[in-house]
Amino acid sequence: MKVIIVYHSRFGHTKLQAEAVHRGAAGVEGIDASIFTTEEALENAEQLDQADAIVFGCPTYMGSLSAGMKSFFEQVVDRWFKLAWKDKVAGAFTNSSSFSGDKLNTLMDIVVFTLQHGMIYVGTGTHPATSHPDSMNSVDGPGPEVENRLGSSVGPMAASFQVKPPAAPPKGDIATAEAYGKRIAQITKRLRG
Amino acid sequence: MKVIIVYHSRFGHTKLQAEAVHRGAAGVEGIDASIFTTEEALENAEQLDQADAIVFGCPTYMGSLSAGMKSFFEQVVDRWFKLAWKDKVAGAFTNSSSFSGDKLNTLMDIVVFTLQHGMIYVGTGTHPATSHPDSMNSVDGPGPEVENRLGSSVGPMAASFQVKPPAAPPKGDIATAEAYGKRIAQITKRLRG
Amino acid sequence: MKVIIVYHSRFGHTKLQAEAVHRGAAGVEGIDASIFTTEEALENAEQLDQADAIVFGCPTYMGSLSAGMKSFFEQVVDRWFKLAWKDKVAGAFTNSSSFSGDKLNTLMDIVVFTLQHGMIYVGTGTHPATSHPDSMNSVDGPGPEVENRLGSSVGPMAASFQVKPPAAPPKGDIATAEAYGKRIAQITKRLRG
Amino acid sequence: MKVIIVYHSRFGHTKLQAEAVHRGAAGVEGIDASIFTTEEALENAEQLDQADAIVFGCPTYMGSLSAGMKSFFEQVVDRWFKLAWKDKVAGAFTNSSSFSGDKLNTLMDIVVFTLQHGMIYVGTGTHPATSHPDSMNSVDGPGPEVENRLGSSVGPMAASFQVKPPAAPPKGDIATAEAYGKRIAQITKRLRG
């Protein structure tokens, strides 16, 4: 089973998130996990064709997916003409410098793209951290070390408050991404096994 | 393998679409397909818990999912607390009285709901009808008899121009819904078999 | 100039947010600001027709606008048939128990509704708090006392971590809502003066 | 009052739509209307700063705004840092080769961008064509010559079924765009006069 992470990152925050998704997938028995920048993915497009799952991640810039990721989407349009990625597992993740910061819109841009390709979309499959005993009934809410503190179900979200990598994204957001990689790999084994 | 269609319909258009999804699923070998209104689904909630796939459909009213469907979503919140529907297959469909009519927003409302439940989301897996030889290079575009004439990938869309059921939704939109039911059933067999 | 806040709230968090929007609008010279629950709004629908601005707010439940608000939207459909609210100023706000929690989707549901009515949509008009000196380069990010800590531009977001009102939403989210009421009132004076 | 149309178009369909929005705005007394490609807009960015209204339009590619437009959005980020476009009127339009084709998602990408800039968003302000006597109770729905046949409220949508410009977008979609330009100009005069 082959899982590929394709990411776009300018300052390195989303790269750390991508590496965590990759680590989570790679740790599942029977999974061959690779990680590509969008540029590397274009050079190795035949590997995408052979993959069982592809997970796409990029920063949220100005309220939607980054131009870097969108440009990649447009450059692989020939795969869409052939529905070459149909029935592969798909996933999405994003990072920005706010708690919320319109990150959902980026994930939705990616969800629509993957469904246009006929892929099968997998979300985080976890509750928001606010059902975690440590963060319930706290005005401050879940801290930066808590998994799924941002409460996303569509895909992992990370918030990097202009702190340079590797200080950001924080531990909790990295854990969210790693758990997602594991989930993607497990669903891929069930669907494509 | 158990597939359940849950729908809300006021005038009967969405009901016809739901019946087509049900027909498509029921026609796949090894599939036990049921169809419930949102009221019936609440009365038979334990059947939803036992299902392998649940497909949700409702009209697009004022640009989002109908209050009837949303009320159902809120009444099954106990399933979300337990993530009781995690890893089931999910799908969505909608009908309104315009070609576009903000139908995508309704499908997205349902997609987010199913991903909050940890379900695995399956779209139409087909090209828009505009790659169909009969509709290419036609100013009018694909007619009401053409499958996926509306060009949706997230889930089947239907357009019923205030014509009473069974005259609307038209043949092409019904075929789109039926093909979707078949796809949902096939993916369910692969993922949950 | 008449500004009306219409809100749906079950546990009282969104009510506090609505009252803050109202307070912000009422504090602007020349503004007559009212606040209605969705039930009161239906009983006083002629006041909505006379308003220069209407701001809609509700909790985010299961990833979209609450059934209570959606039901209200469907019950005022006669106003849409007549485009009776065309060119009025519109706004939206929401609360949920996560930092992010798919709140953007609720705001978008309301934005589409107001644009279907031909209303003029006004967002927060402010930067995310992450450009605030106190929260830059902090792993924790902006605290609960900081305005627009959640980084929303479409409309005010609040996060109430299951803490009972009036302890939640926190001070920063209330300030965000109040500043939004003021902005709505000021734009209303410019557009409708 | 200065209205600027900024568009990205690869094959010329969206260009025709942009020219129609421009024509509609230019026809309103007291309006100085300009039209720029995204490249021209970058070269004349100070004109955008002086504008009273900016309308953004691009094709829907793979379910979201084109990389060409997104790249432009990222290149004018310095305007966002200064909120230099705050309180200007904003609008959006899009074209694709399907009736629906996930066009709403592109408009939403643009709406979020404009609200991040603190702009005031104006939609079509019209009913869907399906309330038009000629298209009611017709299985086929409104033809290509009917204004707002696609039923959009967020901004003009056009469907060009792979027919080369100027045969597509069809007459009705061009009329929708022209009416929108007129509306943008009129609201601009009211808000910024």
CATH architecture of chain A: 3-Layer(aba) Sandwich
Instruction: Look at the structure and give the CATH class of chain A.
Output: Alpha Beta
Biggest interface and its residues per chain? A-C, 38 and 38 residues
Q: What composes the largest sheet of chain A?
A: 7 strands, mixed
Find the structural class of chain A using helix and strand composition.
alpha/beta
Helix content of chain A: 25-40%
Any low-confidence stretches of chain A, pLDDT <50, length ≥5?
Answer: none
CATH topology name of chain A, in short, is: Rossmann fold
Q: Number of folding domains of chain A? A: 1
Strand content of chain A: 15-25%
Give the overall shape of chain A. Answer: globular
Q: What's the overall average pLDDT of chain A, rounded?
A: 95
